[in-house]
Design a protein that fits this description.
NADH-Q_oxidrdct_subunit
Length: 100
């Protein structure tokens, strides 16, 4: 079974790393990635708090919403970072940094 994503679609931008490891992908997070992660987490915490119908369930509901938001935000940031390294998203900064 072929799990190589480039077999389905060819990158439009220069490829920095065809199969970036976890550590390189996380180290490549931009300020915008962190902003998106924190925004998604913040909205999820608020929605979790407001969805707690009874006052004694608002705390656990807020924590659950926050965990879901942090995981979702991290996955979104990871997807964008990996996409830039693999050449699927605009990556001028990555090409300049890793070209050395």
């Amino acid at each position: 079974m072929n799990t190589d994503i480039t077999a389905w679609e060819k990158p439009e931008y220069p490829v920095v790393d065809r199969n970036p490891p976890f550590t390189k992908t996380v180290a490549n997070f931009s300020a915008l990635d962190y902003l998106r992660l924190s925004t998604i987490a913040g909205v999820s915490i608020t929605v979790g708090y407001l969805s707690g119908i009874k006052p004694n369930i608002r705390g656990p509901s807020m924590v659950t919403g926050g965990l879901i938001g942090v995981m979702g935000g991290f996955m979104y940031a990871y997807q964008n970072s990996a996409g830039r390294l693999m050449g699927f998203f605009p990556n001028e900064r990555e090409v300049a940094r890793f070209k050395k």
